[in-house]
């Protein structure tokens, strides 16, 4: 194990969490030498060397690991790319940047023989990427699905367990640091989407761009949807889902009406839960905190420690001779609330299983393809609409 001297970019919630974790364990082999931030005038309450000049990190010969924990995807991309080209190992927590640039960054790792690790980007404290790399590196894997966003799960837990309103639950999540002041990334499913793309690369060796995947969140959910779900003895969870069917692969992010017999039914508050299903070993469940500075900072430290042992991802699934082809031609049973006849006709149901109409509440339960959902993704975001997968079991 080699000693690591870190140049850290970003000192927000996760960056500060990492700093606190290192202070707590008093590591002698891992030290943060310089922290690059946007605003030097801000008082951060710690005795550390801050700079606003990236060159102070990149040109420092003592720094042998760069850790990038900023929220700007474009700036994160520039940092990671520059680090790899300078042959400095790098750890990143920016899932949006990875979701858009992972293929290029894989090629750069190979070209410059320099590792990039990002386990902390996908599921907070759950080491899902390394497990997919090391323990599920074969063709027996069938699906990976679960709760990948702790902020939205915290909100849903407060709604279903404590009968809080959506607005109150969101404000509490923001006060506790689980949700941003602009929570769109979390509650509209984009954060889960970026993580799903990363997970899919390691699970199945397939890259699909964010624009191609149906992504839908909980921002238009209302009291009627909550009441319907409770009447069916279920809970709403925002679920990211990738599954292989023979030579085809489906991916989506969608709220689901989860029954009591499912592992993720009981995943509460800011926790994540991931179910990995294999052809012969059945289902395996991973559970852990998915939001918060210290849990995510601890996951970043795990990546840092792996770098100390020269660990790198091998992307084994990409080398398979035949990779599954991404498709949207797969049918889900869904619950769909709407208001107008025009909205009712957005979805082309192949089978209607249940429907209800009144002056103020209309819904359909029926079968629809992911392709149809994707084609009307933006119209479905209207406040008068809400759609959720409604599994049979």
CATH C-level class of the largest domain: Alpha Beta
Determine the number of helices (DSSP H or I, runs of at least 4 residues): 14
Tell how many strands the DSSP assignment holds: 17
Query: What portion of the residues fall into strands of 2 or more residues?
Result: 25-35%
Low-confidence stretches: none
- Secondary structure: helix percent: 25-40%
Overall geometry: globular
Which CATH architecture of the largest domain is right? 2-Layer Sandwich
Q: Sheet bearing the most strands, described?
A: 7 strands, mixed
Rg, alpha carbons? 22 Å
Q: Return the domain count.
A: 2
Give the overall average pLDDT: 93
Give the CATH superfamily of the largest domain. Answer: Dihydrodipicolinate Reductase, domain 2
> Would you give the CATH topology of the largest domain?
Dihydrodipicolinate Reductase, domain 2
**Secondary structural class:** alpha/beta
List keywords for this structure.
Rossmann fold, Dihydrodipicolinate Reductase, domain 2, 17 strands, 393 residues, alpha/beta, single chain, globular
Protein described:
The protein is an alpha/beta fold and 393 residues long. It folds into two domains: 4-118, NAD(P)-binding Rossmann-like Domain (Rossmann fold); 130-292 and 323-389, Dihydrodipicolinate Reductase, domain 2. Helix content is 35%, strand content 25%. The chain has 14 helices and 17 strands. Strands 7, 8, 9, 10, 11, 12 and 13 form a seven-stranded mixed beta sheet that branches. A six-stranded parallel beta sheet has the order 3-2-1-4-5-6, with helices on both faces. The longest helix is centred in the N-terminal third of the chain and has 18 residues, at 95-112. It is globular and about 70 Å long. The model has no long low-confidence stretch (mean pLDDT 93).
